[in-house]
Amino acid sequence: MSMLSRVAEHIYWMARYIERAENMARLVNVNTGLQLDLPKAVRSGWAPLIAITGSKEIYEDLYKDFEERSVVKFIIGDTNNPSSILTALSSARENARTIRDIIPRETWEQVNELFLLAKTQLPAGLSQRRRYGYLKSIILGAQQITGLLAGTMTHDFGYDFLRLARNLERADMTSRIIDVRSASLLPHGPDLLQPFESIQWMSVLKSLTAYQMYRRQMQTSVRRALVLKFLLQDVQFPRSFYHCISEAEACLKNLPHNDIPLRTITQLQRVVSERDTDTMTPQELHEFIDDLQLALANVHDQIRANYFALPETETAVAAN
Amino acid sequence: MSIKWKDYKITGFYDEIIRRAGQPREIARPLCKYLSSLKDSELEDLKSAADLSIHTMGITFTVYSQEGGSIDRTWPFDIIPRIIPKSEWDHIEAGLKQRVQALNMFIDDLYHEQKVLKDNIVPEEILAKSKNFRPECVNIDPPLGIWAHICGSDLVRDKDGKVYVLEDNLRVPSGVSYMLENRLVMKRVFPELFENFSIVPLDEYPSQLYNCLASISPRPMERPEVVVLTPGIYNSAYFEHAYLAQQMGAELVEGSDLMVGDDDCVYMRTIEGPERVDVIYRRIDDLFLDPEAFNPDSMLGVRGLLRAWMKGNVALANAPGAGVADDKVVYAFVPKIIKYYLDQDPIIPNVPTYLCMDKKERDFVINNLDKLVVKPANESGGYGMLIGPQATQKEREKFARLIRKDPRNYIGQPLLKLSTTPTLVNNGVEPRHVDLRPFVLTGQEVTVTNGGLTRVALRKGSTVVNSSQGGGSKDTWIVDEEIA
């Protein structure tokens, strides 16, 4: 069967939004933990989350402060925020709905249920005490969808688009989480934060469920350079930037006329793996992450142009 | 409350299954015996099993709500089948084939020489005021000369037991997916009944549909690219569109998935680039098909589609303009149309119909509004209708005015006493009114579904079978009495 561009695009966005919802839940969970571990004087607070998600402008239009309450509401349940958990799940559901005949039935049901859960249980998500359980069920729900699809969807082009999307979204979030932690170190002097640095990096690892894997892989305590090496360059950890884009690369290889996005992603792989993480200053790290995100955005645009936005005009057909 | 056929009351209607209280018709005896052997709890279990199957199989019609969780509503399904003896069905099937053949010849004639008008069989006035005549289609020769490839004719049985055609749906008739799914549910729930009856199977329909569509492909090839064109997920019949596409192994497309190239061929946008499309089973009304030719605001259609069709580069089923014969005034002439083109008497009669365009018949209709049903020519789904015996004096006066103002647009018919069939209700079985919609496919060959979709008015006394107004459906069994 051929794969309609529209169908491919819906699969792609469904997967990105589900992954996004999961990542947002992880983000809030880990920041909650981090705040509790740090002495009041050096707490980074909740503003970094707004920076991570790249939503400073919308946020400042809607909220006056960066209090926990406001930030958490914005990230979990504000429908004005295009990346909030609720919006992401709603978008995932809208995309899934139009491809119900393509994806396995249980998947559609699970996506629908997860959205309904996020919506009806929202008060739990906003309450400090019950938040953890709420976010955990979002993360597990998203993982369940991923598992269902892996086990029940034919591994055809559609599945390639699904994995491609998930890994691009995941790579993006890993880079954002690293970025924010590095940025949050800046305002304070190194002396004051020194004792807590490892706690901070540990929280970065935990937000990606990477702590345990890091320990096994690196067999050492938590140190910035090694954490960066692990999260950016590890070949085998499924949330490391390098691993994600390698998965994306593998998917792209299966797709037709893939040369442009494939070239970009191969370059990106090289840039990431060759970078020396030992000596990077926070500023350099920040710039490096910027480059990575730019490259991801390029890959996305090329995929869009290549597969989804097929020519509107008639001449393009003749050219084919 | 287990079923006692003695208590089943027949009240002046023809019943499909029960002849007289306590006396099932010959063909239905094993069924009635089986049903009355069931305990309450067993009956309840069967009903739940059927409901569950419907739910898990996802047989739904779409009611969209942004907020609510339930997007699809299941269509009520009654587990007691309706039975038609095969000998009777063979007769009906022949009648349907005859009817659709004549209708196709009629449509083709209207878009060419219009002999039927010149010979005064059908008055010219009908064409002049037809809502569904498409001047754009004049002198177009669709493949095999066929315009209405998929036709759903509604049949009813009056109290005399005779079957009549109530209307012909030649635009985008729906319901066939429910017919197929109902059978699947019944097989899951009543396997033992299927062992004891010889019920004619249904499951060939999707491949017959594919073959019918493939047979009109402009490019002769083994597997032409056939697609189902849907208005999208918000359409109430979306389930059916997706279902038929899946069953045929065809692509389900929306207007935005298709485009017409410089070469006036139709392509679908795939990740591998544009791919040529040969046949489009369109489930979109004529006027939304192509913003270039028809409604310029249509977001559902494909710019240039009509052009591609006129050049013979793509086949559309049904062909644009086929709806000209889907008109209640044309309906009144179908017996004459059959006689004219085939020189045969119609096998299935029409319901007696009075044409308001004729002065004498109009006067009769206006003077008998309290006894008749008045229908506008081009509406479907029961809209804009007057049911005289149930209407108020004021409504009848309003219709008298409407008829005088636009006589061509109205017909009158006697109120039929639709047949009933036993239907499960809260405390046992009661008669409920039914109709039947068989589907006729016309391509290289003509095929008729074995039976069709039986729609049932679940409200007591009601004759409205539409899904949106308290209607449900039943499995329809064509039973071969020779083998049984």
In brief, what are we looking at here?
The complex is a heterodimer of chains A (320) and B (484). Chain A is mainly alpha-helical and 320 residues long. In chain A, 75% of the residues lie in helices and 0% in strands.
Attribute tags:
heterodimer, A: 320 residues, mainly alpha, 0% strand, B: 484 residues, alpha+beta, 5-stranded mixed β-sheet, 4-stranded antiparallel β-sheet, 13 helices, 24 strands, globular
Can you walk me through this structure?
The complex is a heterodimer of chains A (about 325) and B (about 475). The two termini of chain A are about 20 Å apart. Chain A is an all-alpha fold. Chain A has helices at about 5-35, 45-50, 55-60, 70-75, 85-100, 105-120, 120-125, 130-150, 155-185, 190-205, 210-220, 225-235, 240-255, 260-275, 280-310, 315-320. In chain A, about 75% of the residues lie in helices and about 0% in strands. Chain A has 16 helices and no strands. Chain B is globular and about 70 Å long. By secondary structure, chain B is α+β, with helices and mostly antiparallel strands. The model of chain B is unreliable at about 65-70 (pLDDT under 50). Chain B has helices at about 30-35, 40-55, 85-110, 115-120, 125-130, 175-190, 190-195, 205-215, 240-250, 305-310, 330-340, 360-365, 395-405; strands at about 20, 25, 60, 70-75, 75-85, 150-155, 165-170, 225-230, 250-255, 260, 265-270, 275, 280, 315, 355, 370-375, 385, 410-415, 420-425, 430-435, 440, 445-450, 455, 470-480. The longest helix of chain B has 25 residues, at about 85-110. Chain B contains 13 helices and 24 strands. Chain B has a 5-stranded mixed beta sheet. The interface between A and B is medium-sized, with 29 and 30 residues.
